[in-house]
Fold this protein.
Amino acid sequence: MAEVTREQARAFHDGIHVLDGHFDLLTDVEIQRGYGKTKMIETEYLPRFKEGGVHSLVAAVFVDDAYIPEMGLRKALNQVSALHAEAAESPEHIMIAKSLEDIHRAKQGKKVSFILSLEGAEPLYNDLSLLRIFYELGVRMMGLVWSRRNFVGDGSFFAPVREGKKGGITDFGVRLIEEAEGLGIVIDVSHLNDEGFWDVMELAKKPVIASHSNCRSLVPTMRNLTDEQIKAIANQDGLIGLNSFSMFTAATSAEATLERLIDHVDHMKKLVGTRYIGIGLDLCDDLTKYLSPDKLARAKEIPFDVVKGHGALPQITHELMKRGYKDDEIEGILGKNYLRVYEEVWK
């Protein structure tokens, strides 16, 4: 490894556009705003973003099982509304980006930009017309499923479960993909099962991403991607976002370290090169406070974030530099590759 100081890595890190392609921010923000808090992002999260040199984040709209199906649409709209309210309360600090120009303008204005994404199409139920509503509200990315079945297809479970035959993309899912690409919404296959994945690769006409998935050959969970899937995404000029969740990083918690996480980058680079790698850290440590005491007591171990918050992002840059990654490769992985996909899909 090359000798690189943390100060050298930080200096380089501060000169590039850093974009996290998946963050469950809105779950926390919407709940806390329900308790009466305001300016949640400015007070609770912005200091961490600044510490880590973060310019843009994808804010995922995720609806928990308890609200599916009856409350799915309302819960999603509540989360989108929460982000709009936050942007209105802190206009000098944050903004919602609906275009590449918005992202660049936010950075120039020293603001953090947020890109809205649906983590699963459950809020749409089986009503295709709702997609345009979410688009007008700012949604520019869409995970087709979470790790469960919906009207689009079947999800990939974190660990094996008892289930019947798995399905691919449904007829509704086919129409949804076509409508999303027509509007300029990036299709995200993280959480999708293998059967659905290959359907998407046949159906999609534009670059497809897996916003927060690692390498299955290193950690054999269905949530990670096989080598063939990684190559397929690259062949479509898409992107795979590095996931910091411990159970997708290593086989055991003891092995789940930052170094092990960057091993996934090394593996993907050998397969397809760095043009198709980003970060989608899926940081969830802030959400463990919502787990019930009973669930915590029954859990053998609680998964954790290998990257300890957005303030620790320069550590990724440092590790990549230590391993001899070139400046342009690191710049791509930390954000520029996502901007390339946006430019291709958001036209």
Notes: The first helix runs from residue 6 to 13.
